[in-house]
Amino acid sequence: MSAAFVNEALYRPEPNPLFLGFILGAAFLLGVIHVLGPGHGKSLMAAYLVGTLGRVREAIVLALAITFS
User: Fold this and answer.
1) CA–CA separation, 29 vs 39, rounded Å?
2) Which of 20, 32, 57, 64 lies 20 to 30 Å from 4, alpha-carbon distance?
3) What's the per-residue H, E or C state across the chain?
4) How high is the pLDDT of residue 46?
5) Based on the structure, what is the number of domains in the chain?
6) Do 32 and 42 belong together in one domain?
């Protein structure tokens, strides 16, 4: 894509819905790639525990696994 196309698409009074969908999809994919990087293990494990209604025992096991890894 050329810079002129991006500028025209962003600053148009009514942006193209397809372009907005592309931008949101790209942002989502970049977020997914970012969260898989180092240092996000604690957040992923906390989300897993919340999503599965984890018990205290599971939280302790996950905390120990994160600590030792």
Assistant:
1) 18
2) 32
3) CCHHHHHHHHHCCCCCHHHHHHHHHHHHHHHHHHHCCCCCHHHHHHHHHHHCCCCHHHHHHHHHHHHHC
4) 78
5) 2
6) no
- Give CA angle at 15 (9, 20), nearest 5°: 85
pLDDT tens digits, one per residue of 12-68: 677 778 888 998 999 999 988 887 777 777 777 778 888 888 788 888 887 787 777
One-letter amino acid at 11 equals Y
- Domain span holding position 32: 1-36
HSE, side-chain direction, 13 A CA sphere, residue 47: 6
pLDDT over threshold 70, residue 69 = no
Dist. CA 48–CA 32, nearest whole Å: 15
Q: Which residue has the tokens 């962003």?
A: 10
